Amino acid sequence: MDFDDTPEEAAIRLDARRFLDAHAARRPVDDSSHLAAHRPNTIEADRRHRLEAADWQQTKLAGGWGAPAWPVEQGGRGLGPHLAAIFAEEERDYDVRARYFQVGLEMVGPTLLAHGSAPQLERFLQPLLRGDEMWCQLFSEPGAGSDLAGLATRAVRDGDEYVISGQKVWTTAAHLAEFGILLARTDPDVPKHRGISAFLVDMSTQGIDVRPLRQIDGAVHFSEVFFDEVRVGADALVGGLNAGWGVALTMLNFERSAIGGGGMIEWPQIVNLARDHGVVVSAVGRDRTGAPKSGADAGVVTARQDLARLWSRLEILRFLGYRVRTAITRGEPLGPESSVMKLAVSGFYEDVGNVLMSLQGADGMLWGDADPNGGVYTGIFLAQWAPRIGGGTDQVQRNIIGERVLGLPPEARPDKAAPFKDLPRS
């Protein structure tokens, strides 16, 4: 695969840069302010950020960059994920609130395009594209995380409605979202994968209780969501009755691709931190503060090796991302490639977190106002475990790779053929 820009890619990149230069300011390479998302935040700050993100989304939409991978007839540019990623690469260099609507634009929207009915597309895609309505993914449950098909939330038909009862957890931005795409069990008499349906849910519906979860760094990004006999219309069903597992797989593949498409930290910020601590020395032998550095210290040598390793892994991730998005653009079924990408991303973030803490030295033990880095890098260290869990755990990805790539015998699943109602529940 040739990773240099083709003439078409170069033209798209130039067009993207012209748009960004006309509507946004370039972020200085030593500016880490956009990493503040990893500092302790408040729900009020999230709402303020959303308004800023909506303004930027509408600016992009007016310029034809609101969702470049979407079909032209739905407001996109018809570029496909591979070419659309060029804009995302360029956007990272500008002082804008990007990817705030990632769940909707990169996961829900493409899933609806694949499985949604015509009325659903007409009702939901344009408000989503404008940033008017925010979405969340209502999949994981207290007893159904890695084994998502074991979910217990139920939806029972009652005339022209379904009545939903159950609980979801670790739902990103549920406290901000107007709508969610939910998995529920509609037939307990068949094996667990075959009795699941997907629904579009208005988060303001009576019977829905959203409870934000406070994280270890003080931030609030996730919620647990309770459904107490929540009624939704039969037209909220996505993909057909008991066809929810296929909808879920589509969305999870888009999620894994999206996780690999953007990072918690970028290479310039890693290098700037290293330079601040005397690890990276300028051509004249001085760091950014002007102090001379010999570079002979063994710790400095080790840190430079760490930086070289991170750069290599970052390049590998970039190439893997190209492969995944190219496969999607060609219409090829996305299989284990997304799992390889997801596993590589989670390992990279753990490595980044550890290197950042090492570079900070004793400063890494500080927090809040006492931390000269404002808690940004320590926050990234604390958040490093999230990619190993969200979007399918590392163990699940290894099983997929082992079975579908390496040809290893599949893991024994005695519960796969039994009706869900007969499975033991804790």
Automatic annotation (TrEMBL):
Cofactor needs: FAD
GO cellular component, as recorded: plasma membrane
Superkingdom classification of source: Bacteria
Record-level Gene Ontology MF annotations: flavin adenine dinucleotide binding; oxidoreductase activity, acting on the CH-CH group of donors
SUPFAM superfamilies reported for this sequence: Acyl-CoA dehydrogenase C-terminal domain-like (SSF47203), Acyl-CoA dehydrogenase NM domain-like (SSF56645)
Keywords: FAD, Flavoprotein, Oxidoreductase
Stored InterPro entries: Acyl-CoA_Oxase/DH_mid-dom, Acyl-CoA_Oxase/DH_mid-dom_sf, AcylCo_DH-like_C, AcylCo_DH/oxidase_C, AcylCoA_DH/ox_N, AcylCoA_DH/ox_N_sf, AcylCoA_DH/oxidase_NM_dom_sf, Mycobact_Acyl-CoA_DH
Enzyme Commission identifier(s): 1.3.8.-
Residue ranges occupied by any Acyl-CoA oxidase/dehydrogenase middle domain in the UniProt entry: 136-230
EC category name: oxidoreductase
Acyl-CoA dehydrogenase/oxidase C-terminal domain mapped to chain residues: 242-406
Keyword Transport part of the UniProt annotation: no
Name by which UniProt lists this protein: Putative acyl-CoA dehydrogenase
Organism: Candidatus Neomicrothrix parvicella RN1
Source taxonomy: Bacteria, Bacillati, Actinomycetota, Acidimicrobiia, Acidimicrobiales
